[in-house]
Amino acid sequence: MTCTTDVIDAVHALAVRAREASHDLALATRATKDAALLAMADALVTAATPILTANAEDVARAEGAGTAANVVDRLRLTPERLEAMAEGLREVAGLPDPVGEVVRGSTLANGLELRQVRVPFGVVATIYEARPNVTADAAGICLKSGNAVMLRGSSSASSSNAAIIDALREALTTHDLPADAVQMVPATSHDTVAALMRARGLVDVLIPRGGAGLIRSVVEGSTVPVIETGVGNCHVYVDAAADQDQALAVVLNSKTHRTSVCNAAESLLVHADLVDDFLPRVVTALQDAGVTVHGDPVTAALHGVVAATDDDHATEYLSLDISVAVVADVDAAIAHVRRFSSGHTEAILTRDQATARRFVAAVDSAAVLVNASTRFTDGSEFGFGAEIGISTQKLHARGPMGLPEMTSTKYVVTGDGHVR
Amino acid sequence: MTCTTDVIDAVHALAVRAREASHDLALATRATKDAALLAMADALVTAATPILTANAEDVARAEGAGTAANVVDRLRLTPERLEAMAEGLREVAGLPDPVGEVVRGSTLANGLELRQVRVPFGVVATIYEARPNVTADAAGICLKSGNAVMLRGSSSASSSNAAIIDALREALTTHDLPADAVQMVPATSHDTVAALMRARGLVDVLIPRGGAGLIRSVVEGSTVPVIETGVGNCHVYVDAAADQDQALAVVLNSKTHRTSVCNAAESLLVHADLVDDFLPRVVTALQDAGVTVHGDPVTAALHGVVAATDDDHATEYLSLDISVAVVADVDAAIAHVRRFSSGHTEAILTRDQATARRFVAAVDSAAVLVNASTRFTDGSEFGFGAEIGISTQKLHARGPMGLPEMTSTKYVVTGDGHVR
User: Model's pTM, two decimal places?
Assistant: First the structure.
């Protein structure tokens, strides 16, 4: 990957300022951080006019470029959406401070006192798509967890993001926190993403949020440690011993409650014993809900079902589509999941305790649900209060990431002249 | 980096077999794993003759190649060292099983039961230098934590490693565990390291153990998530309010107890108030212990002190050398640490509570010690029982890594037909 030296230098200069700011932030008390978060919330409301004006420019530019209506909708801010962003910051202020939490502690045999304490990462960078609300969310979560943040949003939202970040930075300074704790990384070219990926030693953690292509390119190209988020090819397995009414409701909810999100179901696995009764019933119910069913050979024999390929089984549709396969038993379901899952969320429907235990133990995903919709894999549903994303990697954080996941730890060891 | 396709294919084929084995290992009970660990220990003793014979070949080859005596010593096995390796496996059998530990759990408002449970990573690969004992240690720690392991040792130890791994694999099969849970990656060329670094999706975590060059090349080139270990440019700061006798003992212990290890002190910072009494005293004591002192201008005025450059302050000597600088106060000490530290371990000597709190809060290292030797940053000293290395990164694990650090987690959510 080539990248102009000027862009690298400019982004790295921002990172150095973020690093400086992170030193102050790491020492800030909860009281100071919460007061700043409330001031940031107020600042968004106070700056509604410049923010909405800047957003109108972004929206007009996107519409002029023929951007899809759903993308423009995600880009658009309204007074209500701005108020929701402010409310999100106030909620973060209400959450416990993860910094300083003692994760583990003991007195060793020689009298040394050992404590493992949560500390901020330092500088967090995030790369995300055209949702201006993410700008305020990420800034709030990082501030509360004591991290300086470098925000690299989409170029299509750059006027909105600049106006939001101006308001947030101004609010920080009124509470004796450095404005440089929140940095906007210009979205002028892809080079600024590449510069972040090379900022090892300057940026502690890089969190890409967006499509599979963005995430893969960051994961493969970054020398900065990455937390991978979000691709979900989520499976629902309906076992022979399922309560069929419950199963029908959970399949429909998992698939149709909201199709564009990573915890929506994309694949349905049905036990072979259910081919004659449940399978046609669930296929019809899905079709009645507007879902296109991509079925394996057995399922494709049913009315209106499209023949599925391996690609279908591997696809995160994010639309009113689902792949369906009939499996011989729970072990065949587990094998299918191992082959095709992205490791986000899988659910089993069964009344059989041993089958549930087998599925839970053998399926290696961030979340495994028993008799519940895949849609529950979510920081808010889990009661975390705030969520920076859903990790699908195994290192550091897995599943919904709340404030504690935005910290590292250090060991503090206290003695009185101890030597070995 | 170029890498022949054959080598990549061969290493990835091993990884696929490790992945298959990891499925069984993840479901193995503690009883099964502990029995296998005890059998592995016995197998090392039983196979003493072939292992020591193979090791003698490695040693002869190293000596023939003119390898440094200390490196040959690390490579050499004796009946006593082999027994110590076996004892290490028995100790791991005695440690609690991290797999299945419930890290967090609650019942949500809607009645869903949420549990965050420790699970193995899956496949762990480790790249290490010419210490055959690491082969058994890493195999034991990975087995206990439910991970299949791919061991890529040094080519200079390859006969020893092959004999050890043969014995360990044989022992696994006597306890219904797959031999492929322990894999030897050939050390035939650097290409096998490169192949591991590219095994994303096949290998879950890569742990390089060795010199700074190896670790940097893996960190920068790997698409597999890495846990960085071990470079320690550790500082001891002696404050104006230190107990000077304690400080002297801690400085000497930190520097001279064992010089070749990552938690040895490499830099000494002395408060300016101590220039006339403590500074000459500690310099003389270090020199009397055979240490070459590389001092800043103030220190270099003392007898026998070599003038230090910035490189000295940044160096992990791993020898009887230390850099010394005089600092105006604790904040200057913190600034020096921020500039030069590798983030492993720093110690402060002070009787002043506020100064200690300031240093602990502001120094961003894996371990911060108050009135204790840097040599205590160690899994065994911390009471972890087994240690795979000391992480100097902030993601996932920081500081000494025991069995819990060798796991990920998953969320298990149980309902009775819950939908959103």
Answer: 0.93
